[in-house]
Amino acid sequence: MKSKTVKRLPKYLKDEEVKNLLDRCKGRRDRIIIELILLTGLRVSEVLGITPDGIDFRNRTIRIHGKGSRDRIVYPPRELLYDLRDYIADESIEQENHVFILTRQRVFQIIKDLSGRSPHKLRHTFAVNYLESGGDLRTLQKILGHSSLKTTSIYLDLLDSTVQDASEKYSRFFYQKFR
């Protein structure tokens, strides 16, 4: 008889931890990197792969070359794009160069020093907050660049209220339609 594997739930930052992390950012570059992860769910390697010519400021998109050589588009908020545009201009970064000239290890160390957590915890934080704010699982799968919905579904187990909220929402729909 095979033993069941215990599913480990991803750890993520609570609201107060996110606030403290952002408050502790020392420089503009570090804050932009951290906000990119928290606001778009990017992996560190994806952040480090961003080039100015992959950013479309007018349409508010960034083209990402993701894991498994899959490309996707992310949609950061306008404010973050303004910060990114100013950073690129101030640093005189050429179109074909990477925006951030850091190693993965250095980004890990920056985030670890500021929060005591790994950068991937920020990605988990994005996913949980996205779902808590009403986002759907299929869209989250696309945002995160997961090839399988099963990979993305682990985040549902972190939300206490998801099933109850969905049930209540359906009940209201049902009664409005049939009563």
Short overview:
The chain is mainly alpha-helical and 179 residues long. It has helices spanning 15-24, 28-40, 44-48, 78-90, 104-115, 119-132, 137-144, 149-153, 162-178, and strands spanning 55-56, 61-65, 71-74. The chain has a single domain (15-178), classed as Orthogonal Bundle (hpI Integrase, Chain A), CATH 1.10.443.10.
Please give the order of strands in the largest beta sheet.
1-2-3
Report, as a whole number of angstroms, the end-to-end distance: 50 Å
Strand count, sense and barrel status of the largest sheet are: 3 strands, antiparallel
| Overall number of domains | 1
Q: Give Rg in angstroms.
A: 19 Å
Q: H/E element string?
A: HHHEEEHHHHHH
What does this protein structure show overall?
It is a single chain. With 179 residues, this protein is mainly alpha-helical. It has a single domain, classed as hpI Integrase, Chain A. Helices cover 54% and strands 6% of the residues. It is built from nine helices and three strands, in the order H-H-H-E-E-E-H-H-H-H-H-H. The chain has a three-stranded antiparallel sheet, with no helix packed on it. Helix 2 runs antiparallel to helix 4 and helix 2 packs across helix 6. The protein is globular and about 65 Å long. The model has no long low-confidence stretch (mean pLDDT 86).
